[in-house]
């Protein structure tokens, strides 16, 4: 069988590894990527900009990965068309690849606001290695930067720019506070304090009206809707991403909040599968259709897609689509699941300087936020994921005594076995 | 068949000997007195908890479809040939992003003392017979290092392991 | 593979027998205990109240305080103080029994004992400030015993024994507030201080530990030694044989084991009873062979030349010879394993102290008022048991070694010609480099006797006169180091002195309470030289120690100003504060301090370096 995979990040790499692990070496695997080289960790791009890491050290897999797994890598070339009836893939350079099964793992692209000036030199995003290189090249030439967007990518970018040596970094946030999709007010304030200490300024409740150009077509500042103008030679736009679903859509495949796949990661087109940031998933908690857009999900979807491509029916369970972990200075944050629900409990533990917020719905843990220390976060995540009754554990969960919760769950689950051994 | 550290819950007295042995095995000196005299601060990767009337150790199960491997953004978390899941000694280095901490259902991945590295059971503590330090240290035989099926055959079911696939 | 459990060939043979017979010994149980609790090894667990038990994570990862808030430093210090208190209590309670016996004898209530050393009685009476003029021995003895009993309970001022030390030493104790008061009081106070919510200052706790130990060294132990001498005779050099080979193939073998000489003295007398000997012969035995073990063994070997079958770790091995008709025990260092082991043979395990009962033991309580009769009863039990011996299961190792023991202070002075001068001269002209006291137990953590024998050999080879008590002394007996002939193993200077005086290079000074004899000599030397004990070129070592008594000993030796090397690691490393107090700060406070060195050859270097430092400081 001939497998072709478009995309070389988390989903693509996980698919390749799984195809080899479960399918052995009798199949041909080709990976097509518009990225210039091997897979890298997208989440570490801010570290690259910050100068804390080199390009080599953010590689996801070692250089010999493709050779070792006997995979043909066509790097630096985009796929431009899928012909599902012919089972062929057309590349940018005119080449055509025949496939038996195709995996679309094309990822997502940053959303740019519909305002004047986004095309200017100095207006960047931080999604790819190319973006990171471009940013790094600009940093020494400017004195200040504006980051548009108070989400995870924006804040990481802002911190990276400060660490890279920029004197002035201002984050423009549409919402009244940062990380509005991940954190509540208290946790956001903890993160904000760390970032302010790191020398970052914030402007809330503000929208960008335009990116202003100087005489040489370079960015000189960012104009806000309220009339303020922030001088800056560099702007990073971090307003979320949009799935790269165009290839499938053009070929006649179904697309919603991303490429629509069934429970076995199949698109509506025969023998075409999709995984990663380009697809639409159903949130496990809300039942809403949303774009996937999480590294962890991309990885697991890549694994599931590969197994299904090999003919092993592996239904992919509805994922948690809000699953975030980050570190800002001395504050680690983890945010999973819903931010609101029937019962909300919150507690700040001054001894461990940790804030915990729990969201319960119907006696089940529907979401949580940890800010400060995040040890044991996975136990909360497992509770959210499993949907088991958790109200009885609220105290332990609130106080961070989760080891005992993990144990108790296990005892309860298998009481029969517990009584029978020995 | 890969071996695992299995737990006979009714035997655990909560003495924390496994925890201490784990920390010592991950110290520079490699001995309790040596580590103490050197002022080292090694961290344990096995934890004693109490649930109801039971005390029991909780440690990494080296899951089949390990969520920590999926979650690792650096590509550091990987599975070794013997089944050990670890973020050290692989192709990439841990970046302390805590993604693995966020997804580990047992809560047994933690940060190191400086917050620069995720620590977990790496089985870098096995003696010449291949037995992990925590198992050697257990005075009551509550910890058993064995192949899962063999252990089941002895009718000593490991609750943790059974529950794993369901969590 | 080489068996590293012992260097004693007799022990190694018996361990093989034990394995063949499927019998368990302390070494097996030690292995079964591996790995031992790390919190315990570091002294970091506390069970002093029922909010606990608590333990402190030594790596700063887990809990750093107990429920009450006690830190690792506090817990380690409290635990150490309790160990000292237990050790001091053991020695001192032994001492009290001896004094009580003397009082009973003087009062005419106890008839089987007599006062054997009247001149020592008189000397002690003078030391206690009692008028002896015109009084009978009985009256003086009674007054002395009563005065000595006063040392235990509430009294004004300080212990009598401390007057033996140089003024400088007294001043150091006074300044630190550690001059020992009542013997019982210090132990009680130690228990009080370590009770929940009392003393929580590590240094204050350790200082009281020193005071408590001093009440042992210059109190309980000292009384045990001196009053035993009065009652049973002051030891003089005597020859005898040692090791398991002293057991007889065809006589009724009776092993006395424990610490107090009260019963064993009577057993020694009764074993010579012709009626009992003929009773033994009537059972087909060639006679009665009474042998000792541990410190009861030491007590009767140094007074009567009774053979000593071995030291602490050989108590089980003696039973495994299959040749013991009876093991008779009193108190201390008796393994509770003996009952079950004896049951595997015909051996009767007989306990005699109301304070010390054991599983599987036949209890024949010692009645001081009828002690000889008790002894006869016990010996009869053994004789009756002789026909039950299965000669096919008997394995007695051939190993024996001769010893010369019994160097009490008086005997030593006698050997020196009545004064310490020859010794002082020899030290001054460097024929004797210094003096080291080797004491203490066996411990399955280290090869039996390896550290004792090798440290003693290393020291005498470099002209350090070695004085020993307890199980250390028995190790040397078995290794032949207690003979004048062993002078050939000594350095030229020490060898010359030994040959001139007819002394062994390693002097057996008695049981573990008799470390008070060593203290007395050290104090006398210091006074002669007009210096403090801490100024002398002397050192102590407990190479294979295991008991709480050894902790008390170590503490009072150090508190008396003597540098001491421990050969097994004490449970204090969980606290830098306590470890530092014991190994460094103690030097400034009391002159003596501890070092821990498990390798006897390195320990020898430490001892010699210390001795050389002290010589240099004295300008000799």
TrEMBL record, chain A:
Give the FAD/NAD(P)-binding domain ranges: 2-302
State the superkingdom: Bacteria
Coiled coil located at which positions?
none
**Alphabetical list of SUPFAM superfamilies matching this protein:** FAD/NAD(P)-binding domain
Among the GO molecular function terms of this UniProt record, one is: oxidoreductase activity
- InterPro entries per the UniProt record, alphabetical: FAD-bd_OxRdtase (IPR050260), FAD/NAD-bd_sf (IPR036188), FAD/NAD-binding_dom (IPR023753), FAD/NAD-linked_Rdtase_dimer_sf (IPR016156), Rubredoxin_C (IPR041575)
Q: Where is the signal peptide?
A: none
Cited Pfam families: Pyr_redox_2 (PF07992), Rubredoxin_C (PF18267)
Which cofactors must be present for this protein to function? Answer: FAD
Which keywords accompany this UniProt record? Answer: FAD, Flavoprotein
Query: Per the database record, which ranges form the NADH-rubredoxin oxidoreductase C-terminal domain?
Result: 328-385
Task: From the Swiss-Prot or TrEMBL record, give the protein name.
Answer: Pyridine nucleotide-disulphide oxidoreductase
Organism name: Desulfofundulus australicus DSM 11792
UniProtKB/TrEMBL annotation, chain B:
Q: What is this protein called?
A: Carbon-monoxide dehydrogenase iron sulfur subunit
On whether Zinc-finger is a keyword of this UniProt record, the answer is no
Which CDD domains has this protein been placed in? CooF_like (cd10563)
Q: Which InterPro entries match?
A: 4Fe4S_Fe-S-bd (IPR017896), 4Fe4S_Fe_S_CS (IPR017900), ET_IronSulfur_Cluster-Binding (IPR050954)
Q: Which GO terms describe its molecular function?
A: 4 iron, 4 sulfur cluster binding; metal ion binding
List, for all copies, the residue spans of the domain called 4Fe-4S ferredoxin-type: 3-22, 83-114
For this protein, the record's PANTHER family field holds: ANAEROBIC DIMETHYL SULFOXIDE REDUCTASE CHAIN B-RELATED, PROTEIN NRFC
What's one Pfam family the UniProt record gives for this protein? Fer4_11
Keywords from UniProt, A to Z, are: 4Fe-4S, Electron transport, Iron, Iron-sulfur, Metal-binding, Repeat, Transport
Q: Which domain of life is it from?
A: Bacteria
Q: What is the scientific name of the source organism?
A: Desulfofundulus australicus DSM 11792
Lineage summary: Bacteria, Bacillati, Bacillota, Clostridia, Eubacteriales
TrEMBL record, chain C:
One function term, GO molecular function aspect: 4 iron, 4 sulfur cluster binding
Enumerate the InterPro entries for this protein: CO_DH_a-bundle, CODH, HCP/CODH, Prismane-like_a/b-sand, Prismane-like_sf
Kindly state which reaction or reactions the protein catalyses. Answer: CO + 2 oxidized [2Fe-2S]-[ferredoxin] + H2O = 2 reduced [2Fe-2S]-[ferredoxin] + CO2 + 2 H(+)
Q: Which organism is it from?
A: Desulfofundulus australicus DSM 11792
Q: State where [4Fe-4S] cluster 1 binds.
A: 37, 45
Cite the entry's keywords alphabetically. Answer: 4Fe-4S, Iron, Iron-sulfur, Metal-binding, Nickel, Oxidoreductase
Listed cofactors: [4Fe-4S] cluster
Q: Which NCBIfam families match?
A: CO_DH_cata
A biological process (GO) of this protein is:
generation of precursor metabolites and energy
- List residues binding [Ni-4Fe-4S] cluster: 259, 295, 333, 441, 471, 512
Residues that bind [4Fe-4S] cluster 2:
46, 49, 54, 68
Q: What class of enzyme is it?
A: oxidoreductase
**Identification of the protein by name:** anaerobic carbon-monoxide dehydrogenase
Give the enzyme's EC designation: 1.2.7.4
């Amino acid at each position: 069988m001939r497998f072709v995979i478009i995309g070389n990040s988390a989903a693509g790499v996980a698919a390749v590894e799984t195809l080899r692990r479960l399918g052995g070496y009798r199949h041909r695997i080709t990976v097509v990527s518009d990225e210039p080289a091997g897979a890298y960790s997208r989440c570490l791009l801010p570290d690259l900009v910050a100068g804390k890491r080199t390009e080599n050290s953010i590689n996801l897999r070692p250089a010999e990965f493709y050779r070792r797994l006997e995979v043909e890598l066509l790097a630096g070339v985009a796929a431009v068309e899928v012909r599902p009836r012919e089972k062929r893939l057309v590349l940018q350079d005119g080449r055509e690849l025949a496939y038996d099964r195709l995996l679309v793992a094309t990822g997502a692209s940053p959303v740019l606001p519909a305002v004047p000036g986004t095309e200017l030199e100095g207006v960047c995003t931080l999604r790819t290695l190319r973006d990171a290189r471009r940013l790094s090249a600009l940093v020494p030439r400017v004195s200040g930067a504006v980051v548009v967007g108070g989400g995870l990518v924006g804040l990481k970018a802002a911190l990276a720019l400060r660490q890279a040596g920029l004197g002035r970094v201002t984050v423009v946030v549409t919402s009244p506070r940062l990380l509005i999709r991940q954190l509540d007010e208290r946790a956001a304030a903890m993160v904000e304090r760390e970032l302010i200490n790191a020398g970052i300024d914030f402007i809330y409740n503000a929208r960008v009206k335009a990116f202003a150009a100087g005489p040489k077509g370079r960015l000189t500042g960012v104009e806000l809707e309220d009339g303020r103008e922030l001088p800056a030679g560099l702007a990073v736009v971090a307003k979320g991403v949009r799935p790269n679903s165009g290839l499938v859509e053009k070929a006649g495949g179904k697309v919603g909040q991303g490429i629509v796949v069934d429970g076995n990661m199949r698109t509506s087109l025969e023998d075409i599968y999709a995984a990663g940031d380009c697809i639409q998933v159903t949130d496990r908690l809300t039942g809403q259709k949303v774009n996937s857009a999480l590294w962890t999900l991309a990885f697991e979807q890549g694994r599931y897609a590969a197994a299904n491509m090999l003919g092993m029916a592996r239904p992919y369970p509805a994922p948690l689509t809000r699953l975030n972990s980050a570190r800002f200075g001395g504050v680690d944050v983890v945010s999973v699941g819903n931010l609101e629900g029937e019962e909300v409990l919150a507690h700040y533990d001054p001894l461990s300087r940790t804030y915990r917020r729990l969201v319960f719905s119907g006696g089940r843990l529907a979401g949580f936020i940890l800010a400060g220390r995040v040890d044991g976060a996975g136990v909360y995540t497992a509770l959210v994921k499993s949907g088991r009754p958790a109200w009885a554990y609220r105290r332990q969960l609130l106080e961070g005594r989760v080891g005992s919760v993990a144990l108790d769950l296990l005892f309860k689950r298998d009481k029969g076995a517990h009584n029978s051994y020995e | 068949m890969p071996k695992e550290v299995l737990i006979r819950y009714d035997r655990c007295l909560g003495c924390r000997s496994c925890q201490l042995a784990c920390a010592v095995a991950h110290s520079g000196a490699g001995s309790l007195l040596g580590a103490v005299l050197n002022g080292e601060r090694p961290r344990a990767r096995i934890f004693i908890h109490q649930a109801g009337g039971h005390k029991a150790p909780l440690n990494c199960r080296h899951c089949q479809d390990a969520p920590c491997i999926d979650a690792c953004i650096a590509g550091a978390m990987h599975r070794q040939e013997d089944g050990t899941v670890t973020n050290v000694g692989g192709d990439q280095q841990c970046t302390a992003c805590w993604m693995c901490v966020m997804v580990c259902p047992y809560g047994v991945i933690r940060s190191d003392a400086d917050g620069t590295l995720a620590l977990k059971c790496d089985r870098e503590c096995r003696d010449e017979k291949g037995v992990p330090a925590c198992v050697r240290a257990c005075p009551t035989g509550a910890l058993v290092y064995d192949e899962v099926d063999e252990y089941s055959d002895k009718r000593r079911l490991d609750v943790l392991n059974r529950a794993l696939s369901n969590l | 593979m080489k068996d590293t459990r012992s260097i004693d060939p007799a022990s190694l043979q018996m361990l093989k027998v034990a394995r063949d017979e499927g019998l368990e010994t302390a070494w097996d149980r030690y292995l079964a205990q591996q790995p031992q609790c790390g919190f315990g090894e570091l002294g970091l667990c506390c069970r002093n109240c029922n909010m606990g038990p608590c333990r402190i994570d030594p790596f700063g990862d887990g809990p750093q305080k107990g429920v009450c808030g006690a830190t690792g430093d506090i817990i380690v210090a409290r635990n150490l103080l309790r160990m000292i208190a237990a050790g001091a209590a053991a020695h001192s309670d032994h001492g009290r029994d001896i004094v009580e016996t003397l009082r009973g004898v003087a009062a005419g209530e106890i008839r089987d004992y007599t006062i054997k050393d009247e001149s020592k009685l008189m000397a002690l009476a003078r030391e206690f400030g009692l008028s002896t003029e015109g009084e009978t021995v009985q009256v003086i003895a009674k007054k002395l015993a009563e005065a000595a009993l006063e040392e235990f309970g509430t009294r004004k001022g300080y212990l009598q024994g401390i007057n033996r030390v140089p003024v400088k030493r007294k001043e150091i104790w006074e300044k630190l507030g550690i001059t020992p008061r009542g013997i019982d009081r210090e132990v009680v106070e130690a228990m009080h201080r370590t009770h929940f919510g009392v003393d929580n200052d590590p240094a204050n706790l350790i200082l009281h530990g020193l005071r408590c130990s001093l009440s042992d060294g210059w109190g309980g132990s000292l009384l045990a030694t001196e009053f035993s001498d009065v009652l049973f005779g002051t030891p003089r050099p005597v020859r005898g044989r040692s090791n398991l080979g002293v057991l007889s193939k065809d006589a009724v073998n009776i092993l006395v084991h424990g610490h107090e000489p009260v019963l064993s003295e009577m057993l020694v007398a009764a074993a010579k009873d012709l009626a009992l000997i003929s009773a033994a012969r009537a059972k087909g035995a060639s006679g009665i062979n009474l042998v000792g073990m541990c410190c009861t063994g030491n007590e009767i070997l140094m007074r009567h030349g009774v053979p000593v079958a071995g030291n602490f770790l050989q108590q089980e091995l003696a039973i495994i010879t299959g040749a013991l008709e009876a093991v008779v025990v009193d108190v201390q260092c008796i393994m509770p394993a003996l009952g079950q082991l004896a049951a595997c043979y015909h051996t009767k395990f007989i306990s005699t102290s109301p304070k010390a009962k054991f599983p599987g033991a036949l209890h024949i309580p010692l009645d001081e008022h009828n002690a000889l009769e008790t002894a006869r009863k016990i010996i009869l039990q053994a004789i009756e048991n002789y026909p039950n011996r299965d000669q096919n299961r008997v394995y007695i190792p051939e190993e024996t070694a001769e010893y010369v023991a019994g160097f009490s202070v008086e005997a030593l002075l006698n050997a020196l010609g009545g004064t310490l001068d020859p010794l002082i001269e020899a030290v001054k002209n460097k024929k004797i480099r210094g003096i080291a006291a080797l004491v203490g137990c066996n411990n399955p953590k280290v090869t039996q006797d390896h550290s004792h024998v090798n440290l003693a050999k290393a020291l005498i080879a470099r002209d350090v006169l070695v004085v020993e008590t307890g199980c250390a002394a028995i190790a040397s007996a078995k290794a032949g180091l207690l003979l004048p002939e062993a002078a050939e193993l000594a350095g030229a200077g020490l060898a010359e002195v030994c040959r001139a005086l007819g002394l062994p290079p390693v002097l057996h000074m008695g049981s573990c309470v008799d470390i008070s004899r060593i203290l007395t000599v050290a104090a006398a030397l210091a006074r002669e030289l007009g210096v403090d004990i801490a100024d002398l070129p002397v050192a102590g070592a407990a190479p294979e120690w295991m008991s709480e008594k050894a902790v008390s000993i170590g503490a009072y030796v150090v508190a008396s100003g003597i540098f001491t090397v421990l050969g097994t690691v004490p449970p204090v490393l969980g606290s830098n504060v306590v470890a530092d107090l014991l190994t460094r700060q103690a030097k400034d406070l009391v002159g003596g301090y501890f070092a821990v060195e498990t390798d006897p050859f390195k320990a020898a270097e430490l001892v010699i370096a210390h001795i050389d430092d002290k010589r240099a400081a004295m300008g000799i």
